[in-house]
Amino acid sequence: MPGNDPNYPSGVSLVGREALQVRWADGHESTLPLALLRRNCPCAKCRTLRSRVSLQVLTTPAPDRLEVLEVAPVGFYALRIRWSDEHSAGLYPYTLLRSLCPCAGCRSGDGGQAPSGCTRGEPGAPTLSRL
Ligand SMILES: [Zn+2]
Ligand SMILES: [Zn+2]
């Protein structure tokens, strides 16, 4: 099912207690700080909090002190992350993780090694044209 989707991870590992490293099928690697992931938690509760406060920085209590207890794949499309405060409602679609990639290539918009798949773009746009 994953097929040749470059936004499918071939490896996921925790880097210390600070970041989640994702290696993508196209060879690109994303090191995603845990605080960044938590701020972008896609669960309904966090989304509501974010829209109410409208400033992402204020959403969660001390995200810097949170740890990840467990990362588990959900089907072929997402990771579930269980946090040390027992928050585990958020499923992170791979496209979201990829769009959060903070590397210079992705931030500058040339998308590292997968130009069309690694921009800030919308999750859920899986059709990628590759050279
Ligand atoms: Zn959440
Ligand atoms: Zn990147």
CATH fold title: NE0471 N-terminal domain-like
Shape: globular
User: Main sheet?
Assistant: 3 strands, antiparallel
Structural class: alpha+beta
- Domain module count: 1
CATH architectural label: 2-Layer Sandwich
**CATH class annotation:** Alpha Beta
Give the % helix.
10-25%
β-strand percent reads 25-35%
**What is the total tally of β strands?**
6
**N-to-C SSE series?**
EEEHHEEEHH
Question: Could you walk me through the main structural features you see in this protein, from its secondary elements to its overall organization?
Answer:
By secondary structure, this protein is an alpha+beta fold. The chain has a single domain (9-113), classed as 2-Layer Sandwich (NE0471 N-terminal domain-like), CATH 3.30.2020. The protein is 20% helix and 26% strand. It has helices spanning 34-39, 44-53, 94-99, 104-107; strands at 9-15, 19-24, 29-33, 68-74, 78-83, 91-93. The strands form two sheets. The protein has a three-stranded antiparallel β-sheet with strand order 1-2-3. A three-stranded antiparallel β-sheet has the order 4-5-6. The protein is globular and about 35 Å long. The chain starts with 8 loop residues before the first strand and ends in a 24-residue tail after the last helix. The model is unreliable at 111-129 (pLDDT under 50). Residues 41, 43, 45-46, 87, 89-90 line the site of one zinc ion. One zinc ion binds at residues 28, 30, 101, 103, 105-106, 112, 118.
Topology:
Layout: E1 9-15, E2 19-24, E3 29-33, H1 34-39, H2 44-53, E4 68-74, E5 78-83, E6 91-93, H3 94-99, H4 104-107
Antiparallel strand pairs: 1-2, 2-3, 4-5, 5-6
One zinc ion (ZN) binds next to helix 4.
